[in-house]
Here is the input.
Amino acid sequence: MTPPRALLGVGTAVAVTFALAGTPTIASNWGQRNWCGPRDTSPSSNRYVHTRSRSRKARIYTVYDDVRACLFSVGRSWSLTPATHGDVWSGGSEEANLFVFSGPLVAYNYDAATPVDCEERVRVLDLRTGRLRRSLVTGKLHPIPNPPDDYFPPCAVYPRRIVVKRSASVAWIGLDNSDYSAPLYEVYRDDSRGRVNLDNGTAIDPKSLRRRGSTIYWTNAGVVKSAALH
Here is the structure.
């Protein structure tokens, strides 16, 4: 005859197995070495899931309009577009892109827009805890009263490339969209010393920003420039 304690152990195991079977997303996708979150699905699916970016340790994916991020080693995900859940103005929209990983951190461009205003931010999120390490406004246009229906304001700076360190120090190149006559690019860094505009010009290569250790590099009119990122 099986002792009561052993029976309890068997019953517990059966209950856990049944619970996991009832939540296949958790059972099949979380806690794996190279995956986290729900599996990708077809665009015609009732619950469309699409991987946007991934590293050896983390993944960015979209569920409907919600962009989420997770570490393979952590059993939960974090929203990169939290206003999707109803915190933005009526008629607004938001997006996250330009994802860059550094260890457990992800840096990205956060874009929120309404019919009368828009905002770009460079954000750095710790995927272990969901803590937002940095949220830096790159440019914001003040609202105008009673805009026409076809009016959409330009944000002051659209990030085009981002680099980040494990310390959450970050740098980016952005397009100054306040003047349509010529594209003006700007280089910024934000670290322990604060935020600085490092360079400006129409000849900056917006895709040239690179990081090697604690130094960032970019090109302006074909000339390589550099600065420390602490």
